[in-house]
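Amino acid chain
________________
===
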Amino acid sequence: MLRTIAIVLFIGSAFFMLPRMVAEEDIDDEGDTVTSDDESASFDSTQDYSPPSPSGNYYLAETFPTAGSIPTRWIKSKAKKDGADSTIAKYDGEWTVESATNRPLRNDYGLVLKSVARHHAISSNLDRVFRFEDKPFVMQYEVKFQNEQTCGGAYVKLLSEMPGLDLDGFYDKSRYTIMFGPDKCGEDHKLHFIFQHKHPKTGVFEEKHAKKPSGSISELFKDKKTHLFTLVVYPSNKFEIYVDQVEVNSGDLLEDFTPAVNPPNEIDDPEDTKPTGWDDRAKITDPDAVKPDDWDEEAAAEIPDDLAEKPEGWLDDEPLMVPDEAAEKPDDWDDDIDGEYEAPLVDNPLCAEIGCGEWIRPMIPNPNYKGKWFPAQIENPDYQGIWAPRKIPNPDFFEDKNPFKMTPIQAIGLELWSMTSQIHFDNFLVTDDKAVADQYAADSWEIKSYNEREGIAGAGSVVDNMITATEERPWLWLVYAACVIVPVVALISWLCTKPKKKSSKAAAAARKKTDLSVDDDGGSDGEYEAAGPSARPVTNKADLEDDDTPLDGAEAGGDAADSDRDEEEEEVVGPEGEGGAEEEEEEKPVRKRSARKPRKD
């Protein structure tokens, strides 16, 4: 019993503590990537948060340091969305700078998209133009969907350098060099990386879309945590995309974008047409095929079975449906209004065993059925193959071996539509050094992430913690199930196998039985002595022949019998009387004296 209780308590404790242990393990794992002195691991959310400062070269570093005040460098658009209905065309969505609503750090603020079902547009010039020359381009920022996102984006547009760029007129058709960030609508989850490539011959810009990232990003839109998005594009045309410092996509600008940067060498001749007599039929109808004379296209696919016989006992005159005898007219039935009451019809029970009503022969496949006749198909002797237009050199062909040389970037902008409000942006950084971005993240996002995960590990109900833990580890559901099933099975097993205790009367009877010798026929010495010599059974035929005269009780028992009984009683009864005998009985098997035979003269 104690062992079963211990097992149940141990598994129950594990059941409730496991989510917290998992969350704390996540915190410890993330702490390994923080600064060397592990500042974030000891950060107190009640302390003042200090915005990060870039440790190296940068082109933009925006931390939104003051609540309620959008920095003057950020310009709200006054334009209208091109092609939209006039009632929603304006970029009149509200922006503000405020703390996060969930687990905020003191003095930590960000740019928040506040409106629902509105167009939002806001932008800022970089401190200086970024030019794609011999250093990587690195873009990094934080996003927190404080409400689960249903439809809308949180991507940024890096606007191209243009003479007299007017940020007041920033709208959806404004020229950008790179678009990067998360986007979702319904079950379509995206992490955009799009760059606009200029055709060197025509001067036309065309969007190039990166391949999809590996793994699922759906949790980013609903877990209400701060996430870090990082894009790195190298002069070697390689690119890398990170989410929360974990690489989710990488590749080559020349190989992993659609449509491809460089067009094909040859194209189909637009003036080439298919010749009039071109035969591209691989097979044709056999002109010599003739329908056989005995081919009956009118024959039915099935016919009645002539060999079938009506089952004996078939009830031809019985209806298939009869009124339900158990049905009763409703109490509120009015014959004048509802008409004469008729019971509902049910299947006739007499038809259940054999059948009733009109008997119809069953249908069987028609052995003479062939269907509609078609002539056979044969190889076309005039087949010329599938026609395709001839190839000609592509007049627009070019080969750009270094698409990294993109249009310089002058500004950054957010041009968004969202059906969910409270999207929190923070810590925008544009630099040319990945190490600078990593340090920037360690001084900002790492602290926020630790704080949010610490809150998950230490706050909320047990059920909330358990469910949250399974979002990233679905296998925990198996652990939870085991923690429920094992104690239940152990308890049921113990209840089913629990030994029954003997009653005090049964125990006393058992002790008395151990003090008596038992004959083969179930009699005892005490019974024989009380009833006299005549009560003792004859053991065998020889005893019957030799025993001519009955013995009295003293002669039959004798002093030897009394002595033997006393010795056996001393073996059974302990020094403490009956109580000692009972304890001795629990530890040793009961000793039974063999049945005593009548003594011969």
